[in-house]
């Protein structure tokens, strides 16, 4: 079986994780390889090409798509560039992976999904948190039914990690934590508890050096009966820094589960109390503390390739991710007005 051929656009801070994962997937006969790289910044393009041994390089995505025969493009630029690049790929009939957040505005997101649907090409948003091993373990417990019907939950990300050092653009946007990190925990809440009927949010800016909000607390009433608190912060000065761990607490009719600090999973069910270490794997190219995120990058890219070969929709297809995007819009809307918002308003 031939490897699928991909072109990667955007060789910045996060792209090395994609490229390391692609290098691993190129070792599998039914995997994929990156045959061309694109970045408008010549230094970043040259550095990535040298590190990952990719000979074909382009300063312009249009030129790359015109010259290369690709099965997919992997877009790892920041959000303002996503729509034009996704539409470009759709025009060339090439499947697309687009990093989160999908776009600066949900109207752009909808246009991107429609462009791919019209062109008949697959589109996946690289919403990788739900592919983290500890969160997959939580989902497996829910699916097993041992805690019964969930009725309450919490998904929490609280950190003081200086994320702006690696991603300076995060300090500049009017929107910060909900758009950048909240999108991950809101998607995790959908992954665990299903769709949301009502959302109420409150936000704060603690760090005076940033333009957007760095703390958000959201109350989600899910359609299937779970009420969840979803909270995130980049200004938490806690005794134990947990970046980038997501903590989860769920109560069900027959038991409960907690994903605690240090990837410790505790499940209470009628059978008793079980404790497990659900730490992510430290892949050879990964670094602590990013390793759980890095493993999820490999998992989601493998999933995309499997779906492309099978002709099935990825879990975080563009159309699915619009539902997560609607939660982001609902959170900003609620925080601005103080009102409870039905995310369907944005769907
Ligand atoms: P970055 O600014 O470091 O890198 C982006 C690169 O894209 C730059 O080198 C820039 O020159 C290039 N670029 C921008 N527009 C281009 C265009 N039209 N054509 C060619 N090249 C172009 O950004 P980053 O920190 O690597 O973030 C990229 C994306 O990854 C963002 O959307 C961010 O939210 C996301 N991200 C995701 C995770 C995750 O866990 N899923 C973590 C970090 C960042």
Can you put this structure into words, describing what you see?
By secondary structure, the protein is an alpha/beta fold. It has two domains: 4-121, Rossmann fold (3-Layer(aba) Sandwich), CATH 3.40.50.720; 130-283 and 323-346, Dihydrodipicolinate Reductase, domain 2 (2-Layer Sandwich). Helices cover 36% and strands 24% of the residues. The chain has ten helices and 14 strands. An eight-stranded mixed sheet has the order 8-9-10-7-11-12-13-14. A six-stranded parallel sheet has the order 3-2-1-4-5-6, sandwiched between helices. Helix 4 (82-91) packs parallel to helix 5 and helix 5 (106-119) runs antiparallel to helix 10 (318-337). The relative contact order is 0.15. The mean pLDDT is 98. The structure holds nicotinamide-adenine-dinucleotide. Nicotinamide-adenine-dinucleotide is lined by residues 9-15, 38-41, 44, 61, 76-79, 81, 85, 99-100, 126, 128, 167, 169, 180, 293.
* Tally of discrete structural domains: 2
> Which strand-content bin applies to the residues?
15-25%
The number of strands is 14
CATH superfamily of the largest domain: Dihydrodipicolinate Reductase, domain 2
Q: Give average pLDDT, whole number.
A: 98
- Unreliable stretches: none
Quick summary:
With 347 residues, the chain is α/β, with parallel strands linked by helices. It has ten helices and 14 strands. The site of nicotinamide-adenine-dinucleotide has 27 residues, from loops.
Give the helices and strands, then pairings.
Elements: E1 4-9, H1 15-25, E2 32-38, H2 42-52, E3 56-58, H3 61-67, E4 72-75, H4 82-91, E5 95-99, H5 106-119, E6 123-126, H6 133-144, E7 150-158, H7 163-166, H8 177-193, E8 196-204, E9 215-222, E10 227-233, E11 247-252, E12 256-260, E13 264-269, E14 272-277, H9 291-310, H10 318-337
Parallel strand pairs: 1-2, 1-4, 2-3, 4-5, 5-6, 7-10
Antiparallel strand pairs: 7-11, 8-9, 9-10, 11-12, 12-13, 13-14
Helix pairs in contact: 1-9, 4-5, 5-10, 8-10
The structure holds nicotinamide-adenine-dinucleotide (NAD).
Domain Gfo/Idh/MocA-like oxidoreductase N-terminal: 5-125
Pfam families: GFO_IDH_MocA, GFO_IDH_MocA_C3
Domain GFO/IDH/MocA-like oxidoreductase: 136-257
């Amino acid at each position: 079986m031939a490897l699928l051929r991909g072109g990667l656009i955007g060789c910045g801070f996060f792209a090395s994780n994609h490229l390391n994962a692609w290098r691993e997937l190129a070792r599998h006969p039914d995997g994929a390889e990156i045959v061309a790289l694109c970045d408008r910044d010549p230094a970043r393009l040259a550095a990535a090409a040298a590190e990952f041994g990719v000979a074909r390089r382009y300063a312009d995505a249009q030129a790359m798509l015109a010259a290369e025969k690709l099965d997919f493009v992997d877009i790892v630029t920041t959000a303002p560039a996503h729509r034009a690049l996704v539409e470009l790929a759709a025009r060339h009939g090439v499947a697309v992976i687009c990093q989160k957040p999908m776009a600066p505005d949900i109207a752009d997101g909808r246009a991107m999904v429609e462009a791919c649907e019209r062109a008949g090409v697959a589109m996946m948003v690289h919403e990788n948190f739900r592919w983290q091993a500890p969160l997959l373990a939580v989902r497996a417990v829910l699916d097993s039914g041992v805690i019964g019907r969930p009725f309450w939950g919490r998904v929490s990300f609280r950190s003081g990690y200086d994320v702006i050092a690696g991603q300076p653009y995060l300090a500049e946007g009017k929107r910060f934590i909900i758009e950048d990190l909240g999108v991950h925990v809101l998607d995790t809440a959908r992954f665990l508890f299903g769709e949301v009927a009502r959302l109420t949010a409150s936000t704060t800016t603690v760090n005076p050096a940033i333009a957007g909000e760095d703390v958000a607390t959201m109350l989600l009433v899910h359609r299937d009966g779970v009420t969840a608190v979803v909270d995130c912060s980049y200004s938490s000065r806690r005794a134990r820094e947990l970046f980038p761990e997501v903590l989860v607490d769920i109560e069900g009719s027959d038991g409960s589960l907690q994903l605690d600090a240090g990837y410790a999973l505790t499940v209470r069910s009628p059978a008793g109390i079980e404790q497990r270490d659900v730490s992510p794997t430290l892949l050879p190219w990964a670094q602590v503390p990013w390793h759980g995120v890095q493993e999820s990058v490999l998992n989601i890219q493998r999933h995309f390739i499997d779906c492309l070969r099978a002709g099935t929709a990825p879990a975080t297809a563009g159309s699915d991710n619009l539902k997560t995007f609607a939660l982001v819009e609902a959170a900003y809307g609620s925080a601005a007005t103080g009102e409870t918002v039905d995310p369907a308003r944005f769907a």
